[in-house]
C-alpha cells in the first residue's frame, strides 16, 4: 500500500491519536495525477467533473460544495443553471456550457430548473462500498466526542494528543493551532471554518478511497490510522 502515507505515530501514546493524517500530501499528489490521467480517457460528463474535482486533491469535491454554498444566497440549498455554471467557473473547473447543461439536466430530474446541491455532491463522490462507508463512520464517531454530528476543536481535546506534535514541541504552535491544522485537512482549501461535518468527512475519504483499489487495504489503513 504505497499510496497511503501516515505521518508521525508515537508508539508510547497509542491510546491517543498522535498521527498527523491518513493520506495527506504525498497521497493527494498521487490521486491528483491519477485523476488527471483518467480525465483524458472518459467522455461521461459527470465522471469528468468528478475527476476535475479529484485532481485538486481529496478535499476537491468538498471544495466545490463550499463554492455552491456561498452562492446559495437564499439558503434554499438549490441552484439554478446560472448559479451552477458560475460556481463551476469560480472553482476553476474547465467546462463548456453544453457539457454543464448536460450535467445539470442529469440532476434536474423533475425538470424544475433547479438542482439540490447536497444530492449533487453525494452523486459526485466516487462510489464506495458499504464496508468503506462503515469504517469511515467508525472513525468519525470516535472523533465526534459530543455526538452532535460535527467535529470541533473541543471534540479533539480528548482524542488527539497535540503535545507530541513537532510544531507544538518546538513552540511554533499552541495546542489549539495543532487541533485546527488537523481539522483543516478535511476542509476545502478556500473556506476553512474549523468544523467538520459527517458529509465533509465522508467526502474527504471518498477522495482518499478513490486511489485505493481494495476494501481490505482501505479498511486496514483506516484501522491503523484511527486506532479502531
UniProtKB/TrEMBL annotation:
InterPro entries: Ca-bind, EF-hand-dom_pair, EF_Hand_1_Ca_BS, EF_hand_dom
Residue runs in coiled coils: none
Top-rank taxon: Eukaryota
Entry keyword set: Calcium, Metal-binding, Repeat
Gene Ontology CC entries for this record: organelle
Record-linked Gene3D superfamilies: EF-hand (1.10.238.10)
Domain EF-hand: 59-94, 95-130, 131-166
Keyword Calcium attached: yes
Entry annotated with the keyword Metal-binding: yes
Name of this protein: CAPSL protein
SUPFAM superfamilies for this protein: EF-hand
GO molecular function: calcium ion binding
